[in-house]
């Protein structure tokens, strides 16, 4: 009740509430004024309990923002990468899917509303982060649910190196995405590997230097997965086109040794592919002719060479050591026609393809002897031919005509052997020999 004779303004106030009318003014009222009531309406509460917690770091996306608030019927969501984020959505529930965010800091706030007013919450922030991958060091294990993504970064990759990024282990289905100079997504990437399961590998030869960005996408829920990045400079062990030699008998090479015996010999002739090449002659079974290079350890890399053979009576081998175990290439007729044969780790030979005499072929081997199940791949004239099991390490290589076979003539050119992993050269020693130069032994004579 407003008493007679009173003047003034009545403005009701209670935290969290608004009133109608907001105020009443009086001036020297002539009688008592009763029933001067106000209708009270509760305002939205202050938004609180943010998730992600303000100041926290998360490694998985998508991120769903949630919060708590009382007496609100809708929420304006402000979200972005600066401290004055823009309005991005109006929600009727206390959640907002911010999506597949890339690494960085994100700011957000909520303005809660109802029919009687609004309340602006504090400015919150969180970080989407990543793990740095060190050279050759696996990270894991980790898991993810369908549609989730997480990020990794590879820094200080040396220009010209060979970079391998791989996923392995666990169950489910995780896919691998890589991009140079920016974070990848499933729709924007430079390289990806997306087979069924968790075994994924991306290999970049002669990689450009700098930083590579990696994303693992959960195509299906996975667990127990590991990731590893490895890079190293190419180490050229042999790069030989024979152009720098005088025509005539070959007696020495700068990268290894020449061995001949009996009536066998090796000439430098104009029969290369093109230009000069090394021509092997081994007219009798008792003679041997070979080029040899030895080392202490070679586990990963490539071997390339060109050859041309004349007639099925000629047999020639390109063999890594230990001998009679893969990787090894045999050229000639070994019981199934004039062909290229490759050798497995268990000493069995596999026919790769038929060949024609007097025709040049280019062979390239990719060696992965440091894999969990060592193997090598064979390409001929640029076409993939086979993958074969291999030994876990090698100590040298021979290009040879055997001491128990004949070779009327074979041309060899353009030898290129490159290590893309750890290469340990041979200690100081005498000329390379690598002992065995026969083709048949008790282990192999039935092949």
What report would you give on this structure?
Helix content is 0%, strand content 56%. The chain has strands at 8-10, 17-20, 24-26, 39-42, 48-51, 56-58, 60-61, 63-68, 74-80, 87-91, 95-99, 104-114, 117-120, 124-128, 131-132, 139-144, 149-157, 161-168, 171-180, 191-193, 200-207, 210-233, 235-240, 248-249, 257-261, 265-269, 277-282, 288-298, 300-309, 316-320, 328-333, 338-343, 349-354, 361-368, 375-380, 383-389, 394-401, 407-419, 423-425. Strands 7, 15, 16, 17, 18, 19, 20, 21 and 22 form a 9-stranded mixed β-sheet that branches. Strands 23, 24, 26, 27, 29, 34, 35, 36 and 38 form a 9-stranded antiparallel β-sheet that branches. Strands 25, 28, 30, 31, 32, 33, 37 and 39 form an 8-stranded antiparallel β-sheet that branches. A hairpin with a 4-residue loop joins strand 31 (328-333) and strand 32. The radius of gyration is 37 Å and the shape is rod-shaped.
Largest sheet: 9 strands, mixed
Number of strands: 39
- Work out the helicity level: under 10%
Task: Quote the distance from N terminus to C terminus.
Answer: 115 Å
On the 0 to 100 scale, the average pLDDT is: 90
Low-confidence stretches: 441-447
Question: What is the number of helical segments per DSSP (H or I, 4+ residues)?
Answer: 0
Shape: rod-shaped
Secondary-structure-based class equals: mainly beta
């Amino acid at each position: 009740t407003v008493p007679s004779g009173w003047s003034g303004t009545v403005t009701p106030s209670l935290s969290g509430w608004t009133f109608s009318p907001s105020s009443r003014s009086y001036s020297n009222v002539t009688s008592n004024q009763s029933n001067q009531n106000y209708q009270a309406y509760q305002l939205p509460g202050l938004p609180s309990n943010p998730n992600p917690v303000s100041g926290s770091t998360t490694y998985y996306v998508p991120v769903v923002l949630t919060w708590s608030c009382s007496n609100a019927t809708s929420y304006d969501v402000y979200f972005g990468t600066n401290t004055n984020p823009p309005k991005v959505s109006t929600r009727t529930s206390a959640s907002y899917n911010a999506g597949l965010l890339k690494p960085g800091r994100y700011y957000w706030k909520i303005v809660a509303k109802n029919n009687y007013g609004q309340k602006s919450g504090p400015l919150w922030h969180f970080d989407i982060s990543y793990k740095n991958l060190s050279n050759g060091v696996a990270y894991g294990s980790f898991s993810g649910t369908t549609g989730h993504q997480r990020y990794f970064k590879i820094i200080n990759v040396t220009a010209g190196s060979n970079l391998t990024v791989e996923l392995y282990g666990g169950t489910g289905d995780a896919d691998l995405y890589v991009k140079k100079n920016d974070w990848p997504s499933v729709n924007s990437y430079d390289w990806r590997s997306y087979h069924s399961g968790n075994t994924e590998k991306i290999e970049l030869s002669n990689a450009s230097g700098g930083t590579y960005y990696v994303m693992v996408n959960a195509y299906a829920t996975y667990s127990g997965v590991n990731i590893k990045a490895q890079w190293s400079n190419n180490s050229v062990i042999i790069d030989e086109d024979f152009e720098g030699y005088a025509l005539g008998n070959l007696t020495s090479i700068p990268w290894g040794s020449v061995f001949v015996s009996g009536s066998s010999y090796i000439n430098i002739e104009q029969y290369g592919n093109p230009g000069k090449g090394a021509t092997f002659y081994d007219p009798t079974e008792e003679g041997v002719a070979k080029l040899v290079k030895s080392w202490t350890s070679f586990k990963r890399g490539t071997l390339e060479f060109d050859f041309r053979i004349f007639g099925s009576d000629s047999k020639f081998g390109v063999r890594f050591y230990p001998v009679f175990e893969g990787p090894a290439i045999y050229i000639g007729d070994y019981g199934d026609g004039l062909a290229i044969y490759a050798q497995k780790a268990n000493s069995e030979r596999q026919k790769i393809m038929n060949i024609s005499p007097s025709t040049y072929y280019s062979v390239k081997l990719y060696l992965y002897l440091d894999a969990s199940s060592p193997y090598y791949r064979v390409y001929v004239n640029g076409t993939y031919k086979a993958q074969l099991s291999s030994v876990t390490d090698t100590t040298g290589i021979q290009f040879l005509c055997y001491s128990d076979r004949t070779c009327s003539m074979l041309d060899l050119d353009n030898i290129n052997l490159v290590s893309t992993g750890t290469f340990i050269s041979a200690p100081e020693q005498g000329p390379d020999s690598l002992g065995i130069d026969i083709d048949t032994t008790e282990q192999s004579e039935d092949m």
